Amino acid sequence: MTLELDVDGHAYKITIRADPEAGSGHHRLQVTVEALDLPKVVQRLDIREHACGTSVIDGEGRVFDAHVQSLTTGSWIVGLARTVVPVADRRRTPAQGLAVRAGVADHRISAPMPGRILRVLVEAGDLVKAGQPLIVIEAMKMENALTTRSDATVHEVLVTEGMSVEAGRLLLRLA
Amino acid sequence: MIDVLVANRGEIALRIMRACRELGYGVVAVYSEADRNALHVRSADRAYGIGPGPAQESYLRIDRIIEVACQSGARLVHPGYGFLAENAAFAQACAEAGLTFVGPSPRAIAMMGGKTAARDVARSAGVPVVAGTDTPLAPDADDVQVQAAAASIGFPLMIKAVAGGGGKGMRAVGSPGELAEAFRRAASEAASAFGDGRCYLERRLLEPRHIEIQLLADAFGTIVPFVERECSIQRRHQKVVEESPAPRLDARIRRQMADAAVAIARAVDYTNAGTIEFLVDADDAFYFLEMNTRLQVEHPVTEAVTGIDLVQWQLRIAHGEPLEIDPVQALSPRGHAIECRIYAEDPDQGFLPSPGRVTALTAASGPGVRDDRGVEAGDTIPIFYDSLIAKLTCWAESRPAAIDRLRRALLEYRVAGVQTTLPFFRWLVETPAFRTGEFSTTWPDDLLQDRRELFAAPDNTERMQAAVAVGLTEWLSARRLSSGRSGSTATRWSDAGRRERLR
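Output (structure tokens, whole complex):
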């Protein structure tokens, strides 16, 4: 099995097959990892699934534990000990996994949680700076300002003040 | 058996239920429609629905809670923190219904709960207060009124809800130009959070520390103050890390603050658990900030360094017992304790709430670790309430050892399905200022202000691990599918039968 993945904005190619030297073991795999700028890695892995994820031990005895959560077809969130990594299938939905997680993709501002639109602070055509509040959404008793990470122009405003929105609802398009 | 009705939800409901059980009391829970399947309901002996999800229609409905309390036969009502915990009308309604409210008298709540009245009490008890407006401003006060009030105390200032708590309805204002908008937002937030939109203005000290004194008071005039808690690490005026004892506080100042706290409590014939909050400036001068007439979120750090169970004592005091605590033990910390409030918020998106289903959860444990939690794997964090998932408290012999232990425990603690503030805390414990204890209430907001990088940006190893993990998951599920297809005819028939029954 071969997968082409976008891992936190980096391209990875993963090839997996049953370990030919592992005999009857069902959980021993040979995994080839190819990433841009990094040397190709071939690993023999012993994997086990448990209640909270997958436990992996590599050929040198190193252990890691991962919790893979499927978001939509072809996009995942991987929880590791220290961090959370967005992953997307490059052949299916290029980089969309990032958008789903963040609520703010490059050119789309969507509702990170269900709530009510309290204020719309911009209109189409406005130039906005990184960090500038665009929309104020009320949820969990708090007012939360949605901002942009980079300078942009507001292309389209898709909601009005007072509207109730579901998580993931597209609110603004930037250009 | 005596039953206690817990008029709250989440981790604090569980904390109270534990104390009840240890004292041999039965436990009655209440729940909103959004919480029918919540952990606090599953943990109770009996449970009663009190209305729809929004707090105004359930956890803030005094009439409904009194009704089910009477119906359940509970003798005591513990309000926890938040919701009705500092509502004098609720305490009064309990008394009128023949229920024992686990907390102070309605009179004490009313006097100390109104932030402006509380300042008067502190002043008359000889305790200094921060300069501020003496009469509350109505939520619809016009700009001229608000500007006039502000001019009398000067900038920078704080807008605070008269009924406030938890950072809600609170705004820092640096200049007159920001005042009108900040006042309007504070008032509207206060109205929706507390049902009271009135606000007042207070002079803002520069680089103050927030240090508070917990106390217990019984019905016989005994008041015991506890070693201080430092709660300066706040985000948007909401405490996120609390510790005891304070990292830089002279023992002499501790004694003075404890005496001041007792004087204020005595002035209102205070009973049960309460906390006097102070702001301490760079010269160790302290000013009364407000009194919380209830159990505090951060009470576990005090329990950790004194060995005294505050919630058990709340129940025992309410039950009419005299305090039997060694006052020296209460004021002499053993070791050091630090608490982190783990919220369902995304620190990489400006701490936006991240409600939803917790798909997996592994709590930290081991020596010196306490986990107060209201959520298990599979539970949903509703949109209606505070998004606190758990409080992680670490105790060790010294502050540096407690930080090391906290850092270890933060790596053990894992929550999947919703974003949490765990990555923020893992970053925070590594900062030099946290180590040295040289921070004030404006840190880490100042530190976060210009921060653009992610709290836990994955490195090359982690990206590779994530890629491998996704590959393995896909491989395993493909293998499960193919083994399903190649099953025997008999298996396929029984599969089809099972599917049929599931329809």
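The CA atoms of residues 109 and 172 of chain A lie 5 Å apart.
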